[in-house]
């Protein structure tokens, strides 16, 4: 084999192919880039924004995820995937009263949204709501009706944009199998957005 060709293969071509193969493997199994569809997470995430999706990351309270929509959600919103914030984990109790959101009786820190948006969490229900009262809705899957707490392998999620209830208030719990990954914004975003999306699970309760 020509000496120059061997040098080219050894120094450039083989490492390049290996690098591409590793990148494809990592993207297929550990992360991907996704485009946010809709305004569910506005103002922290906006329509058409590109974000990193970590497929193997742990899901905790305050984590922002991308999830596949259920059939009714898809029919009403027109989207197949939606970004939402996890509020409650399996076994948790959730309720909203007097303008405050509670998980297991503890007040949730909602500094990532404005005071005006917080009031929309109540969906104009003066007495507030609980996971039990929400689950009586015909929009919730039958298997999730009349529950007192978040079911096994499920999550209660809320949109940061609370005005249009495209989240668990309207459509029920998100199943673990629906979750495609955890959202992370890039380092060039504002410090506020990085904290609100990438790190807010650290400061979930007040």
Task: Give an overview in words.
It is a single-pass type II membrane protein. Keywords: Hydrolase, Membrane, Protease, Transmembrane, Transmembrane helix. It is found in: Cell membrane; Membrane. InterPro entries: LexA/Signal_pep-like_sf (IPR036286), Pept_S26A_signal_pept_1 (IPR000223), Peptidase_S26 (IPR019533). This protein is of the alpha+beta class and 206 residues long. The chain has one domain (3-202): Ribbon (Umud Fragment, subunit A), CATH 2.10.109. The chain contains six helices and eleven strands. The protein has helices at residues 3-29, 71-77, 115-119, 131-134, 168-171, 191-198, and strands at residues 31-35, 50-54, 64-68, 81-88, 94-97, 100-103, 106-107, 129-130, 154-158, 174-175, 179-184. A seven-stranded antiparallel beta sheet has the order 1-2-11-3-4-9-10. A four-stranded antiparallel beta sheet has the order 7-6-5-8. Strand 5 (94-97) and strand 6 (100-103) form a beta hairpin. The longest helix is centred in the first third of the chain and has 27 residues, at 3-29. The protein is globular. It starts with a helix and ends in an 8-residue tail after the last helix. The model has no long low-confidence stretch (mean pLDDT 86).
